[in-house]
Fold these 4 entries.
Entry 1:
Amino acid sequence: MTRPGLRCVQVFAALLAASCPRAMADGIFEAGSFSDERGGFRILSATGAGTRADPIVVTEELDTADPVTLTIRAARPIQPFGSTGNYSTGFLPLKIVTRNNSGEAWIEFGFELQAILNAPSDYGDGLSFDQAQRVDNMIKSDSFAEFKRDFEPYDRLLFSKGKVDPQESASFSFLVTDFSPKDRFYLVEEPRVPSS
């Protein structure tokens, strides 16, 4: 049940079968749900087939330079080795396009995966930014030249060597893998501003 004022964007996309992770270009992504219910930002749209060639693209506006949390829910039954298109299988090619409405320039931008809200995602939960590196060249940004991945004791991705001025947008592409597929997980987004 949706509370008044709660914005939730439903996306229909297909999910790649986990039994064939290298076939991403031909994979189909599941129906999923992306929500801005935790506040601090607005989802404007969510589109895409969920394949490597056509990732799910979440377009949003951040009204703050504080961290915000995107909630991602599976909308189909979870089965790691289920048939293509019928189940959530744990592979999510994702592109985040975010507009800076914070009033401050961003000089770095971080992402953190959480299987449990406000708890670090560790190796045992199966969730990562493609820790097994099954697909090369999936991590990129149009506004930042470098990135760094950390896997323990949390799963983080930090983009640096760039800048996003107020009212400008930046895009970030990466692959989320979940080898113990969950019906819900979280993506914390953290713009970083110059220290004063």
Entry 2:
Amino acid sequence: MKKWFKLLTSILLVFSLTACGENGTDEGKNKDTEEMHENHDQDDKVKESEIGKLTVVKQKKDLNQTIKSGPMNITITSIQAATLQPNDEYKEAFFDNKDEVTIVTIAMKVENTSEDTISIYPNQAALTTNTGEQVDADMLLSDDIGGEFFGKVNKEGDVIFQLDAPADEITKVKYIVDGAHDTDYNSLSDQIQVDLEF
């Protein structure tokens, strides 16, 4: 019962913080989460928002590392490790009541190069680290860049992972996600595994 209440609280928080996007783009995106996503492209090392205080510890920009999965291209553009001190009202719903968490953000572009409908879910990935952790992507905080791609379309956004290891100890990560599949659920490639270093 407690788990269901926690899940319901999380969902209600997400909906209560939702703001309509301008000009029809990113409709329904959480403004505060968006600020956290955008921080990895700024020179500022510390950013405060309603969610909390985010301190960038290390980042790598302009990676432009492309991985193919059938007709799908996933281009990892940057990676960032940061420390987040969440505000009290967000601790229980999003961060298991922790005073501090490590946030690893992987920014990427996903593109279907074919006219076919292809599915891939880069925001449902796993991450392993040199510190021995393995975690799944945080789907509440990550951008919705997965699903069906109807022909030659693309999506762009951040995939976010919460970790316990201090950000300054993370030097290498492995991003792992299932390959693309077609509308008949035929796999179009093997599992994707990408090694990234800070």
Entry 3:
Amino acid sequence: MAWQQTHKEQTRQRILSSAGKLFTTQGYKQVSIDDVMKDAQLTRGAFYHHFNSKQALYSEAIVFAARQAGQNRQQKSLSLPDLIRRYLSMEHVIATEDPCPLAFLISDIGLQEEAAKQSYGKVLDGFVTRLSLHSGIDETKVLQAAITMIGGVALARSTASAPQAQNILDAAYCNALRALEIIK
């Protein structure tokens, strides 16, 4: 019996991992249940043992993807300016590994149901809290920096010009450091 419960949880994690990656990089409408299950190397029938709907999966996958990305980034000990620079990098803008759902889904989330918006809000709260704990700065200033960082990545992803994208990231970096009072 213990194997079955472990197996069920591992299968659920595979589905969430695939969904998080696909939804974050392609958006809700572009990804089907079949796409998720193919990426997870599972059958469509297995989906319904874990989730009631695509929307339910989307809501959970947002949080899962953010946790996964956060855990992978926290493995490296970085100063706050270096952490912000890494977030506001071209590598992150074009990321296929651990993209931030906050920046990558910024226009997609407004079109979703309340549960997805609540998940997105939970991820935003966690992002702000982690930055606040890392910096020791109050959450109001950290929220300003977080908005700048998320918006910077989202805008940089929205341009076809690499130099323009880099200028956006550089401006966002300076504004985030100012919001956190690291530079004046």
Entry 4:
Amino acid sequence: MDTRTRAAALGALTLCLLAGCGEETGAPAGRTAGQPAPQATGEPWYDEVAPAPSSGTAGGTGSTCPVPVSFPLADGWTAEAVEVPEGELAELVGEALTRQGGTTARCEVDGRRAGGGFLRIWTADSPALAPRAVLEGFAAGTDDAVSGQQFRDVRAGAFDATESTWLTTSELTGETSRAWALAVRSAGQTLVLTVNEGLVTERGDVLPAYRLAVRGLAAAT
């Protein structure tokens, strides 16, 4: 190759690199914004679990689920605000049920009539904390033994989010179950969506409603 030909080839290669030749643009065919394809099948994420059918939406500060996000409700699931019971003893009991690891429960989505468990939405008591730090505090804020916490960055509807999963071994029963949680920032707050297996609920009972809510998450007032 003579000098003139080599120079022309190098020039073409430089232009190609600057223009991004060979790079993919946009999302792959079949992908929808905010709904990434499954990334990890099986333990611990179970991305192959499909979202439940939708039946309405919940969320918004003036709604029965008073949080600054909206999300689709799974068919048969209902949302309501979390209220601490009144009275001295009730307040102590309520504190144990509505606060965990630097967060306060604001909304509970009940799926028992549909054969599921609960999806809860919490707000961080310290608005300045980043999503991962809030998830670390939440998982650690229990008397039960926690192990194997993992994290990943995901897209949750309109939000960039951090997702976590961990194992919890009950201090009372010795049973081990898995929990999943997602943290996002909205309206100056860090919010956490949580679901977990239980004595009578398995991942197939709770993950479909959780997947639906996560993939349809949007900002609300």
